[in-house]
Amino acid sequence: MTRFVSAATSPTYSRRTAIHAGALGLMGLGLSDLLALRAHSAQSVITPPKSTILVFLTGGVSHQDSLDLKPEAPDVVRGEFAPIATRTPGMQICEHLPLLAERSQHYSIVRSVATNSSGHEEACHMLLTGRLDFPAGFQVAKAPSPNEWPSLPAQITYATRGRNNLPPAIVLPQPSVNEAGKVRPGQYAGRLGPKYEAWHLNIAAPCVLGNGACPNCFRFEGTPYEHGSATVFETPQLELPEGGSPRLNGRLGLLDHLDQQLQRLERTAEVNKLDQHRQQAISVLANPKVRHAFDVENEDPRLLERYGKNKFGMSLLMAYRLSAAGVNLVQVNLGKNSTWDTHRRNFPNLKENLLPPLDRGISALLDDLSASGLLESTLVIVTGEFGRTPKINNDGGRDHWGPVMSCLFAGGGVRGGNIIGATDKIAAHPIADRQTTENLAATIFDTLGIPRHAEWVDFDGRPHEMYRADPIAGLM
User: Fold this and answer.
1) Dihedral over Cα of 318, 350, 187, 230: its sign
2) Would you put residue 316 in left (φ > 0), alpha (ψ -120 to 50) or beta?
3) Cα separation, 205 vs 450, whole angstroms
């Protein structure tokens, strides 16, 4: 059974993380408590006209081997991949992204984004919070911690009202962790306090590799492994109150028995005279779109073939459905830190294990958003926390590189077939239109209709501006 968890309640983030009716674990608060708190401050939030899907390639994707190739650079920089033409004249991307090349009319590439750090912890905090500075006393070794700036999902939870009785922000399918399984900073509510924690769905099934790279279960050395579970996800289940206690003698599958359980929940609500907010929390589970969103693993094989029957593809399918159902921001962590952190075997792992499932999943997401008419109202962002070094190291890999990375932006009013910014001849530094993660965050806020003067207030009562830079110019 899966439940919603938070930084304070579960530092190891057991995958038992989904739906507790009336008792969702949001850093110690149930959903009904959260709804009540938000009802008291309804005047401070807005209902966004659009939504955002933030795809985080955790570990840092190589920009010069994906979206900013330099075929004229020296061998030690250029690498093994060739650029291919897209549908947009003059725009080229990696040969191992052929499906995205066919869909360039839907997206822009920003080739000049910097996170100002080449350390995973610092860069993750900068990207995921939308701030380049750090709080006083911030320590990367103490994550998650209340002494962090709040994550973008937490800020969205603070500033916006969820649609269709859904939470404003959801993160899936697992947190970003390092090789030791430790959580990267910047992923939780931090100084905003626990009542504004986003929903964190930690539903990825365990892998025999522990913190090996996904979705294809490989080590840096290239040794193949079988996936350590019969499923990709732990299907969310529902825990019901029995005799006044939030426990079940038996665990019933969400999708097979949800209707029966919801009837029991409704009866329980009536008998116990649960308040309006608790009944509203229960009603989230009754939303057929939400129930459908979780059932990705049992989908039509043809749909799974389009997205990819792996953690990348099915996470993106779930994100599409949750966004369509009314979640304002869905953050999808594609992989763990080790996934895109290609210090060794950069080219084989990108070619065989990483770029193809990314290409397939993002392309299917764009296709479905376009076909459903939701692309114009849904901003899609694909980014890591930094780029990779221009020079290939002795292990055939590329190391951390904070000065620049490339990001893909689609939908939400983004101009298709567009390139913003440029790097030098070896993709080492921006030479035009330098942007930062603060510009990226401002683009999200602006898309969601959050006013430029918006602030969030920390648990000490101090206000902090949400916009710390302008949205990326020329993107829309």
Assistant:
1) positive
2) alpha
3) 35
Q: What is the pLDDT of residues 77-108, one digit of tens each?
A: 999 999 999 999 999 999 999 999 999 999 99
d(CA 403, CA 266) in angstroms, rounded, equals 54
**% residues pLDDT > 70 (the chain):** 76
β pairing state of 455-457 and 463-465: antiparallel
DSSP 143-212: -S-SSSPPPHHHHHHHHB--STT--SEEEES---B-TTSPBPTTSS-GGG-GGGPPEE---BPP-TTSS-
DSSP 63: G
305 conformational bin, left if phi > 0, alpha if psi -120 to 50, beta if neither: alpha
**What's the CA gap between 135 and 139, in Å, rounded?**
9
Q: Scanning the structure block, which residue is given the tokens 């942007």?
A: 435
Separation CA 414–CA 375 (nearest Å): 10
How do residues 358-380 score in pLDDT, each as one tens digit? 999 999 999 999 999 999 999 99
Q: How far apart are CA 462 and CA 464, in angstroms?
A: 7
C-alpha span between 90 and 267 (Å, rounded) = 62
Q: Which position has the higher pLDDT, 205 or 284?
A: 205
How many CB atoms are closer than 10 A to CB 344?
A: 17
Whole-angstrom distance, CA of residue 253 vs CA of residue 238: 7
Q: Please report the pLDDT score of residue 244 as a whole number.
A: 33
pLDDT on residue 180: 76
What are the angstrom distances between the C-alpha of 91 and each of 48, 109, 328? 32, 9, 31
Three-state helix/strand/coil letters over 248-307:
CCCCEEHHHHHHHHHHHHHHHHHHHCCCHHHHHHHHHHHCHHHHHHHCHHHCCHHHHHHH
